Amino acid sequence: MTATGGNGARILVIDDEPQIVKLLRVTLQAHHFEVHEAANGGTGIYQASIVHPDLIVLDLGLPDMSGMEVLQRVREWSRVPIIVLTAKEREDDKIAALDSGADDYVTKPFGMGELLARIRVALRHVASSTNEPILQFGGLKLDLAQRLVELDGNRVKLTPTEYDLLKVLASNAGKVITQRQLLQQVWGGHHHESDSHYLRIYIGHLRKKLEEDPTRPKFIETEPGIGYRFLLQD
Amino acid sequence: MDAARGKGRGAHAALPWAWLPYVSVTVVVVLLTVLLHAVGLGYDRVNIVLLYLFPVLFSAVYWGIGPSFYTAAISVLAFDFFFVPPFFSFSVDDLRYLFSFFVYLAVAALTATLAARLKLQLRYARQREAHTASLYTLSRQMTAISDLQTLLSNVCRQVSATLDAAQVVIYLPRGSGNGSGSGDGSGTGEQELQLAATSSVSGDEAVFGSGESEMVIAKWVFRHGEMAGRGSGTLREYSGLYVPLRTEERIYGVLAVQTANGNEAAVFTQENKRLLEAFGGLTATAIARVKLGEEAKLAHLTAESERLRTALLDSVSHELRTPLATIIGSATGLIEGEPIFSSADRLELLATIRDGALRMNRLVTNLLGMVKLESGMLRLRMSFCDVEDMLGVVLAQVKNYQQHRRIRIQLPSHPSYFAGDEVLLEQVLVNVLSNAIKYSPDGSEIVIAVQEDTASQQVIITVADEGLGIPKGEEERIFEKFYRASSASHVTGTGLGLAICKGIVEAHGGTITAEQPAAASGNGNGNGNGKGAVIRIALPIGNREAIDRMTAEEERRSEDV
């Protein structure tokens, strides 16, 4: 994994902490990314329009304006993937950022491997936005055209809701999906915040059918307090 | 007779009904005279004189000295007029009768004086008894009350009731009412007073005690520690009496009494002033007691926080310095000695840096968690929790450092859902499980068991390890902040993790306890040898019906496809 380069993809880092910026610059450049920097929100927004980055790493705590504001302003005109950096124990901030269009988040302090994985997933989703009819993750195969799910060659029977849930998660594989996003995409507009218990029960059902050991999930990982992430199979 | 009556009336003209005893006595003497005359005891003069003593004694006992002297006088006159020859004349035949009159009057005067004094003493005794009773009531109330405000209003009410005074107020130095303990004001004189309590019912017109002049007198009394106002030696032209609340060493405030219009003379008697002084002393003692109690509490808190601060400093400085030392050492070594390290050495140093930093990160997380709990900033985000889901997250988090310990999970046959804050409860489970890993040998087994207790409506999660165990008697203490079990001194740690767990679990209305493992559980394999610890977490299920309904509904829905 570590050997995979960035192939010159352009990353804009918006962060006011020189130490973090330095760390990201050195590491990302070593992985063959082209790194641009902005130390505050205003410059960040300006740079985003000038540099046309392939991806933005955005710190939510900025000196001049909130990271949320930068996020919303960039989202007004750009679909560029945005990964937010947040402090720990700020679940509300993370959810708000993800629901306002951030693609993923990394909690400080973070491991470099984790950040690189998030960056790669985000870049890949931009590249492969064409609808592939068959998704394959290790032993799990989803045939989107025929609504078929197979695990190690055996057909898995899913209810329509379970199937929809799996489809949303799997087609965003590697990316975190908030509870609200899942409710919206699976149940449609008519859902309520307190309906998250349905989600939990369906995830439980799905894991029973797909996972060998539901307490050590290989496919559907829980992001505590935020949502779920479909794991990419190595 | 008329003259005597008139004189009696004149002397007590101010008091209504003061003439009543004189009239009554006159009537009695007249009746007695008529009776004696009719019965014809006219010649047994000794008995007659003795009978005439009755009204005297009677009036002495009931009306006091004035009426009894009056009775004696008219009795002598009646005796002389009707029974001493020559009859129906004030003149006396035998001059020895004059001596008899004199003896009679002397006896009458003496008995009257004695009886009247006795009566007065009785009245004083009764009054004293009433005062003592009210002082006793007050002192008893005071020992039971530890809240200053209640205490003061009680004093006001009691004084008001005892003295029949219209209004009673208490002044205290500003800032002392809220228990800040700043009332260090004896003698400084610059301290501002404020109205701390009053007996008057709200809605009174112009509450006594809040006026400028009243405040000035109160301040004077507070400064000088002497009584002032009506009926005292100073500032007697003002209405109301001001009594300092003083103990031997300090003046705590001022008690002011205002009477209803006009009856100041009746209220501010010498006796009542003494009583007020006693009230003042009692109140001052009570205030002192409450203050001392507050100061003691504060001192205890200070000592406790001092102890915690020391523990925090010791623990944090050690726990921060150790990883910092490894980080700084490894990093400087790498920078300065670049060429001499083999790539394996370099990897090892880098891993040391990472582990040190991770350890510091855990410490900071725990410290922040503790601060959050202690400052009351902890807000539960209740949601619908699935134990299985939570365990998945927890296992993923400890995966990197469980090494070869086997973690076995026992779940009930049907899913366990309950209401809770999943992020915080996962933190609890991670802390407990990390402890189990930290204090047990590599290769041993850790069992996480989940049960639903339908009787108590709780989900019970136990984490059992085969490690060091908890010394007997320390099962509760290990949940205290900065407390480390005596058996764990060789393992690094802050003593914060379990304290945070306890805080979080209790915020959920649950309990977390440590238990000794059941003796029979020694299964022979591994290094168990019957040791180990069990941490038991019991969490209320919450709205059971709603959860059951949702579960049933969902199961039904998923069936019908």
Structural descriptors:
heterodimer; A: 234 residues; alpha/beta; Rossmann fold; Arc Repressor Mutant, subunit A; 2 domains; five-stranded parallel sheet; four-stranded antiparallel sheet; 8 helices; 22% strand; globular; B: 561 residues; alpha+beta; Beta-Lactamase; Heat Shock Protein 90; 3 domains; five-stranded antiparallel sheet; five-stranded mixed sheet; 14 helices; transmembrane (chain B)
Protein architecture, described:
- The complex is a heterodimer of chains A (234) and B (561).
- In chain A, strand 7 and strand 8 form a beta hairpin.
- In chain A, strands 2-1-3-4-5 form a five-stranded parallel beta sheet, sandwiched between helices.
- Chain A has two domains: 118 residues, Response regulator (Rossmann fold, 3-Layer(aba) Sandwich), CATH 3.40.50; 97 residues, Orthogonal Bundle (Arc Repressor Mutant, subunit A).
- In chain A, helix 6 crosses helix 7.
- Chain A is built from eight helices and twelve strands.
- Chain A is of the alpha/beta class.
- Chain B folds into three domains: 123 residues, no CATH class; 149 residues, GAF domain (Beta-Lactamase), CATH 3.30.450; 168 residues, Histidine kinase-like ATPase, C-terminal domain (Heat Shock Protein 90), CATH 3.30.565.
- Chain B contains 14 helices and twelve strands.
- In chain B, the strands form three sheets. In chain B, strands 2-1-5-4-3 form a five-stranded antiparallel beta sheet, sandwiched between helices. In chain B, strands 7-9-10-12-11 form a five-stranded mixed beta sheet.
- The longest helix of chain B has 67 residues.
- The radius of gyration of chain B is 45 Å and the shape is elongated.
- The N terminus of chain B is likely disordered.
- At the A-B interface, helix 6 and helix 8 of A face helix 10, strand 6, helix 11, helix 12 and helix 14 of B.
